Amino acid sequence: MENKDSDNKYIVPAVDQAIRVLLCLAGSKSSHMGLTEICEEVGIHKSKAFGILHTLQRFNLVQSRGRKKGYSLGTGLIALSRKVLDGINVIAFADPIIKDLSDKVNGTAALGIIDGDTVVVVSRYESDKKIIVTTRVGKHVPLSFGAHGKAIAAFLPEDELNELLKKEKLYFHGAPENFDRERLMKELALARETGYATDIGEITPGLNAAAAPVIDISKKPIGYLLVLGLFSTEEIKEYGPLVAKAAQDLSKQLGANIDDYLKDTKG
C-alpha cells in the first residue's frame, strides 16, 4: 500500500490553500466571512489570503461583499455544482433509505426537497397498514411547516434563520396564529441536540411526525426525511433517532461530512 505521505510532494501549496479558503467559506455558519476570520480559520497570512481571494474573484468563485461583510462564495460555483448535481440522483440514493425507514416504523416515510420558500415531496413509501396516513408526491408546503420546518430551521445558518423568522406567516405550530417564537427557539435548540424535530398533532390533531434535515456538501439543509402516522408520543420518541440516522446516512451519500457538521451545530 502506498504511503500517503509520499503523495505530499505532488501537492501544490497555493492550490491547496485556495481550496481550503473555498471550503472555509462553504462551512461558515454565516453567508460571509471577513479576511481576518478566513486567515485564522485556514491558517495563512493576510497577504496570502488576499491574493488567493482576488484570484478566486477573477473566476467568480468568490465575491467581495464590501469591507464590512468581507467575502462569500461566488456565482461561478453554480455552474460547477450543476455539473455535479447532474450526475447525482437524490431520489435514487434516498429510495432504499426511505423504504427501510417506512418498514421500521410501519408508517409513511417521505423525502422533501427545498424549493424556494417551500418544500416539495419528491418520494414516499407507505406501510401495508389498513389505515394509511399519506402525503402526496409533488405536494408543496411552506418551508416552516410542522416537523420538517423545525428540522430545517434548526440547521440553517443564523442569517438565513433570521430571514425566515421575519416572514408574515409561519406554520411551525400549525395555523400562523398559533406560532410561539419562544417555544420555537427551545424546539430548535433541542433539534440541534437530537438531530430531529417533531410535530405532535400541531398540523392535524392525532397525526404525529418526526423529521430530520438532509444536508449536502455545503453543510446546509437541502431537504428533509420524515415519518408520519397515527403514532403515540412514545413511538415518536422512539422513531425520531431512526429518522435522524437515516437523514445522516443520506447526507453522507450526498457528500456531507456529517461528523464535522454535528460537532459544529452542537458546539
Using the CA coordinates, give the radius of gyration: 21 Å
Number of domains: 2
Structural class determined from secondary elements: alpha+beta
Extended strand count: 8
CATH topology of the largest domain: Beta-Lactamase
Instruction: Name the CATH class of the largest domain.
Output: Alpha Beta
Features:
alpha+beta; single chain; Arc Repressor Mutant, subunit A; Beta-Lactamase; two-stranded antiparallel sheet; 267 residues; 8 strands; six-stranded antiparallel sheet; globular
Structure overview:
With 267 residues, the protein is α+β, with helices and mostly antiparallel strands. It has 2 domains: 4-82, Orthogonal Bundle (Arc Repressor Mutant, subunit A); 88-266, GAF domain (Beta-Lactamase, 2-Layer Sandwich). Helices cover 46% and strands 17% of the residues. The protein is built from 10 helices and 8 strands. The protein has helices at 13-27, 35-42, 46-58, 76-86, 90-105, 146-154, 158-165, 181-194, 233-253, 258-266, and strands at 62-64, 71-73, 108-115, 118-125, 140-142, 197-200, 208-215, 221-229. The chain has a 6-stranded antiparallel beta sheet, with helices on both faces. Strands 1-2 form a two-stranded antiparallel ribbon. Strand 6 (197-200) and strand 7 (208-215) form a beta hairpin. Helix 5 (90-105) packs antiparallel against helix 9 and helix 6 crosses helix 8 (181-194). It is globular, with a radius of gyration of 21 Å. The chain starts with 12 loop residues before the first helix and ends with a helix. The mean pLDDT is 86.
